[in-house]
Amino acid sequence: MSVRDYSLNALVIRELPLGDNDKLLTLLSEEAGRFNVIAKGAKSLKNPVMPACRAFVWANYEIHESSADSRWLRSASVIEPFTGLCADIGRLYLAQYIADVCMELSGPGEPAGDILRLALNSYFALTRDIRPEAQIKAVFEWRAAACSGYSPELSRCRVCGAERAEAFYLDVMNGGLICASCAGSGPAAAAEGEVPTDAFGTRTVYLPLRGQVPAALRYILEVPMKSMLSFELRDPDDLSDLAGICETYLLSHLGTGFNSLKYYHEVSQL
Ligand SMILES: [Zn+2]
Asked: What is the pLDDT of residues 141-193, one digit of tens each?
């Protein structure tokens, strides 16, 4: 790779201190995916790049690249600071969790358009309070799972093909619906105290789908991203179910947990 200078728009998904004066930023951009850049003097209030070197800032960055592992920030101008994300500690942890999921679902040189737009839309919604925080978080998680290739099939039971049933569950590990009768006769019916598993030994997780939740889950995936939050769940139990389902689904497929999410739940319950 040759030495080059370029500019791009990117979101700061991590900032780490580097020595006394500098920062190491992890940026997420549509074209270049996730990459690190050293911001010299970024801790100094007098440095004009300082406002663009904070977590969750969306900015234009001028970068000097001397090798694939060596990039320096030349200058930067903030496009959207999303300062409202730091308004309270719960929101800050939620913003950090969204950034952590972006870290997980992106890589160097992999175009990151979908997950980047999803994060930006979610930050925008959080700073404008356009929907309950639990709904914004759930919609982010459900679409993030789809971005990562785990889009569930929600039109029929994945075992018998029934489109109508007395009740449906979300079969988390297999990414689809399962009707009550298939769920009742399948591996989930294991004796009490045992962890039910499928034929491959995978732990079975069936989550009940009630009220408006199935319609909301379909809606979130079917509409363009700009409309993904344009629905309202009037019953608080539905919102609570949606929140639980989307979080469980994403974490099960990523196969990891996040400290930011743990702290978010801790402060949200205070
Ligand atoms: Zn079935």
From this structure: 999 999 988 889 999 999 999 999 999 999 999 999 999 999 886 554 444 44
Distances (CA, A) of 3 to 21, 66, 72, 171: 25, 4, 11, 50
Instruction: Give the Å distance between the CA of 188 and the centre of ligand 1.
Output: 13
Domain spans of the chain? 1-81, 126-268
Taking the centre of ligand 1 as the mean of its atom positions, its distance from the CA of residue 208, in whole angstroms, is 14
Please identify, in words, the CATH class of the domain defined by 126-268.
mainly alpha
Alpha helices in 35-163 (DSSP H): 89-104, 113-128, 133-147
Q: What is the CATH number of domain 1-81?
A: 2.40.50.140
| Residue of 55, 57, 52, 14 whose CA lies nearest to 36 | 14
Task: Using the mean position of ligand 1's atoms as its centre, give its distance from the Cα of residue 138 in Å.
Answer: 26
Instruction: Please tell me the total number of residues recorded for the chain in this structure.
Output: 270
